[in-house]
Amino acid sequence: MAKKKMRTPEEASRDQAAAALLERAYRLEIETSFSRADEIVPCPIGAEGLCCKNCAMGPCRLVGKTDRGVCGATIATVVARNFCRAVAVGAASHSDHGRDLAYTLLGAAEGHAPDYKIRDPFKLLEVAGYLGVKTDGRPLEEVARDVALAALGEFGRVQGELLYVKRAPPKRQEIWRKLGISPRSIDREVVDLLHRTHIGNDQDAEHLLDQAMRCALSDGWGGSMLATDISDILFGTPAPVRSEANLGVLREDQVNIIIHGHEPTLSEMIVAAAQDPELIEYAKSKGAAGINLAGICCTANETLMREGIPL
Ligand code: SF4
Predict the structure, then answer these.
(1) What ipTM was estimated for this complex?
(2) Each residue's pLDDT tens digit, 14-27
(3) For ligand 1, what atom is nearest to the CA of residue 68?
(4) Would you list the domain boundaries of the chain?
(5) 235-264: per-residue pLDDT in tens?
(6) Is there a contact between 305 and 237 (Cβ–Cβ < 8 Å)?
(7) Is there a contact between 273 and 207 (Cβ–Cβ < 8 Å)?
(8) Contact residues for 26 (Cβ-Cβ < 8 A; gap 6+)
(9) Looking at the predicted structure, is the pLDDT value of residue 152 above 90?
(10) What percent of the chain stands above pLDDT 70?
(11) pLDDT band, residue 1 (cuts 50/70/90)
């Protein structure tokens, strides 16, 4: 297969700072995601979603005259199954992040996670209302505990539909119910979607995609929304802040720590640790002027909007 043309730094990025750094990386022969992207030729069958390896009779590549897998799955079914698996993974990843935050809130409320506090009590009371948790005259820790347990209950809800569905406009809720895609529980929709994509289960592409929508809704109106709400409770609801962005945020004379990933439970603790006088002294004892914190990717956006940490 023909090799792809290597891009110049200016072709790889419009950003002048990134292009300058790529230029240096090329000169020093350091591999980057840009150079790897240039070296790897994407598989055209994979790009179209035409390869199925969902069972041991495959992998089946539906190309040329082959329009069905060994099991009889059509091109539409295979493409839909591959897309559904991507939706399930994305929903699982985002929603499980919400579960982690609910457990953190529970730990904070019960005193097992003393470094985490309820920073936005108004948001806690608002979320309690959405989840049907009583608030009148109750200590915040008790409310937080019940909110955390109610949030965790949404992951394995046994009957009915997600409580947050009622936050959507009534007309939208009706459309979801009419289509049979109103989410029932967060975990269940992911499991149901994966279940359907296996051999001998759901063979109908449109039917598969209906469940992909229900799974996506369980994330958007379930796991992800709970993650955002609980992050606001624990780390404060964002307000406009001024900060800096791009490679110029790195400091030559300091220990640079780059926050990466999507769990704010860790990055918020790194923000706190970077301000610890003992750690700053330690950095200084090694010849640095201090500790410089910046971020990249999703969790960096969280620390940017909540703490003003540069990106
Ligand atoms: S599920 Fe069907 S199409 Fe997929 S690998 Fe097995 S036999 Fe092939």
Answers:
(1) 0.99
(2) 999 999 999 999 99
(3) 3
(4) 9-41, 75-235, 247-307
(5) 999 999 999 999 999 999 999 999 998 888
(6) no
(7) no
(8) 9, 35
(9) yes
(10) 99
(11) low
Helix axes 224-235, 298-307, angle to 10 degrees: 40
The number of beta carbons lying within 10 Å of the beta carbon of residue 301 is 16
Looking at residues 132-155, what average pLDDT do you find? 97
Among candidates 85, 91, 88, which has minimal Cα distance to 224?
Answer: 91
Number of other residues whose CB lies within 10 A of the CB of residue 248: 10
CATH match for 75-235 among 3.40.50.150, 1.20.1270.30, 3.90.550.10, 1.10.3810.10: 1.20.1270.30
- Which residues sit with their C-beta closer than 6 Å to ligand 1? 52-55, 57-60, 69-71, 73, 78, 199
294 beta partners: 258
Instruction: From 291, 227, 296, 229, select the one nearest 259 (Cα to Cα).
Output: 296
The rounded Å distance from CA 93 to ligand 1 centre is 25
Cα of 136 from ligand 1 centre, angstroms: 56
pLDDT over 80 (residue 53): yes
For residue 98, report the distance from its CA to the centre of ligand 1, in Å.
Answer: 33
Q: How far does the centroid of ligand 1 lie from the alpha carbon of residue 73, in Å?
A: 7
- Which residues have C-beta within 8 Å of that of residue 263, sequence separation ≥ 6? 97, 100, 299
| Longest CA–CA separation in the chain, Å | 71
